[in-house]
Amino acid sequence: MLALGLMVTAVITDLSTQRVPNELIVLGIITGGYFQLSQYGPWGGLVLLVNILIPFLIMYVIYRIGGIGAGDVKLMMALSAIIGFKAILPIMIYSTFVAGLYALIDLIRSKQLIYRVGLFTRHIGICVSERKIYLYNPVDKEVTEIHFTLCMLCAYVIWIVKEGVM
């Protein structure tokens, strides 16, 4: 239940301020640390470290290529601190699918799908021909951004329902 509260609070603040507050992330990690120390004793610190490190390593790659923001990476780490890395892996996959669906619907709604696919295809062509990965950074980024925290919340709810958690 605490993890759900963390996610809902993160979505609300992200939608209203365009950021996920670090205080919320720290609270999530401290809560996760308490849970892990309560369950595993002194080994709980190591479990917490693993729970934080795995989503960081995966999400950092996506962050570096411009796919998500730093707050999204930190939120996934905080959620993993609470529920564990074994649970976070399917949530990461679900959130990616939700984000893709969200983006597709948004592009169709705004009649930008063909234009954006063309831009992205051109970008991939440049990367392939020059054999170098460049950051994909569309000129009108604010128009193309989605709130990944919302996708993460949806993915977390899907995971809760699928696993019968709560």
How would you characterize the overall build of this protein?
The structure is a single chain. By secondary structure, the chain is mainly alpha-helical. It has one domain (2-163). The protein is built from 8 helices and no strands. It has helices at 2-17, 22-40, 44-64, 70-83, 85-109, 113-130, 141-144, 148-163. Helix 1 (2-17) runs antiparallel to helix 4 (70-83). It is globular. The relative contact order is 0.15. The model has no long low-confidence stretch (mean pLDDT 90).
Short description:
The chain has 166 residues and is mostly helical. Helix content is 80%, strand content 0%. It is globular, with a radius of gyration of 17 Å.
Biggest β-sheet strands, sense, barrel: none
User: What's the number of structural domains?
Assistant: 1
Task: Summarize the amount of helix as a percent range.
Answer: over 70%
Number of beta strands:
0
Q: What gross morphology would you assign?
A: globular
Order of helices and strands: HHHHHHHH
